[in-house]
Design goal:
Elements (H helix, E strand, L loop, with lengths): L8 E12 L2 E12 L3 E5 L6 H8 L7 E7 L5 E3 L5 H6 L3 E3 L12 H7 L2 H7 L11 H20 L15 H13 L5 E5 L7 H18 L2 E5 L3 H7 L2 E6 L2 E6 L1 H5 L2 H8 L3 H11 L7 H20 L2 H4 L21 H19 L1
Parallel strand pairs: 3-8, 3-9, 6-7, 7-8
Antiparallel strand pairs: 1-2, 1-4, 4-5, 9-10
Helix pairs in contact: 3-5, 3-6, 4-5, 5-6
Pfam family, one: BCA_ABC_TP_C
Protein name: ABC transporter ATP-binding protein
Keywords: Amino-acid transport, ATP-binding, Nucleotide-binding, Transport
Length: about 350
Amino acid sequence: MSGQSEMDPILKVEHLSMKFGGLVAINDLNLEVKRGDITAIIGPNGAGKTTVFNCITGFYKPTGGMLTLARKNGEKYLLERLPDYLITHKARVARTFQNIRLFPGLTPLENLLVAQHNALMKSSGYTILGLLGLPGYKRASAAATEKARFWLEKINLIDRADDPAGDLPYGAQRRLEIARAMCTDPELLCLDEPAAGLNPRESAQLNKLLLDIRDETGTSVLLIEHDMAVVMEISDHVVVLEYGTKISDGQPEVVRNDPKVIAAYLGVEDEEIAELIEEVDTPSVADPTDLAVAHLTKEAVAEIAQEQPPAQAGGPKAKPARKKPAAKPTSSQPAGKSSRTSARAKKKPSEGSK
């Protein structure tokens, strides 16, 4: 079969649906991942982002829809029909998870060699012949070690190749997990929140690594991320989900200014979204972000004004009204005691006259 053009999508998701009983996690989702691009899936918590990943990588079998992956050699696979291990082995899809899943007791070098066990087993004919030291197995073992060291250099961990992976800093473990996925030679790399928990320096290192993967290996990257700085800096394309439905799709700068996206993240009510879109369409509005902020600020001020008591809401004009109850007894002096004191004051002159 003829090879695929770089303009063709490597992954095409058509009418994807995923239901768990009566809960609709993904509803009629359509998206494309272009070959050689970094595509980000973003959205509020519970939008269905990881569910999409689980459908792509075979952890879930979709309720409906098609997931078509087209390899560079022209082979096409319907991922919803493949078991998860064939999605990795034949369709060349690799992924990482939100939680780090390294082998903490193994070294970084050994973690990367584990990812290449298929190549090593194939060289031995999937038998124990590798234990006999056959030339083919030796060559495959040397190639696997060389590839592992290449990726350790790429993620700046070659100096700690023989340390336990569990002793590495958190950011280094994140990069090691991505390197392990790359040791399987994927054509599509799926990363589930790779920047979660990283400090700014570690995020910058992650950005460089992902850009190098795209530019140097041609691997297409599909990532889920909440760090908008990472998304806007490295993504070629952004897809936004809300409650399992796609609400925006396009280049980062277009998606960032989409009123629907702003409303989804700021929690604006559905009926207010239409008002925002209508106002954005008017020529007088320059920036929909400013519009949304002004709109929400106006509502907040109105709510605060309603919650304030009338005396405070009156401002300086209400102060003279507070001077009227001056003749009333104070809280520390009961009314009955005040009347007895005044009665004694009246009796004093008559006693003096005697």
